[in-house]
Amino acid sequence: MKPSYLIKGFPGHPTHAPLTDATIGMYSLASILAVLAAFGIAEENMATGWWLALIVGLVVNAPTAITGIADWFEITRWTPLWKTATLHWIVMVSSSAVFGLAAIFGHDDYTAGDVSGGSLLLTLIGFALLTVGGWIGGSIVYVHGMRVLNLEDEPTSSAIRPGPPHREGSD
User: Cα 63–64–68 angle (5° rounding)?
Assistant: First the structure.
């Protein structure tokens, strides 16, 4: 097994993609809870959930970013794919920074069982950047085809097993 598989994942099974789901899920949850708190719905509980979701999102964001950077280093510089991936990276780092600021400046809100207007605004800006970054990230896969093997006739047993796809005579 190649050492790069530990960070990047296997061909056709990149590690970055499922980690983005966890990060996006946490930041989306934080955004929803912040809005609900702003509307006064179980405000103290929503504020607690909002801040904890931000913290979990920031924690999960670290391996997500590391695996994304590992993929980025494999791209030929100055190609359209590289430019798209670099834009994705910039937007996602910006999103993470804004969510980080929301967690830092919102800590007092969390302990008070409230989500202030400033914390809500930072969270919503982070979510807007996250949405744009996810859109751009999707184009890396679905337009440029990065890390896609396009093996339509690959047997299911080979396609879903961990490791590279099986090839005749490769064992």
Answer: 115
Residues 121, 122, 127, 130: is their CA dihedral positive or negative? positive
Model confidence at 140, in pLDDT bands (50, 70, 90)?
very high
CA-to-CA distance for 21 and 142, rounded, in angstroms? 16
Q: Map residue 17 onto helix, strand or coil.
A: helix
The angle that helices 16-38 and 80-105 make with each other, rounded to 10 degrees, is 40
pTM: 0.90
How many whole angstroms separate alpha carbon 76 and alpha carbon 26? 32
Tokens in use for 15?
A: 């590690």
User: Is 66:16 a contact under the CB 8 Å cutoff?
Assistant: no
Q: Please state whether beta strands 9-10 and 13-14 pair in parallel, antiparallel, or not at all (unpaired).
A: antiparallel
Terminal alpha carbon distance of the chain: 12
For the chain, the domains span: 12-146
| Residue pointed to by tokens 């890390």 | 147
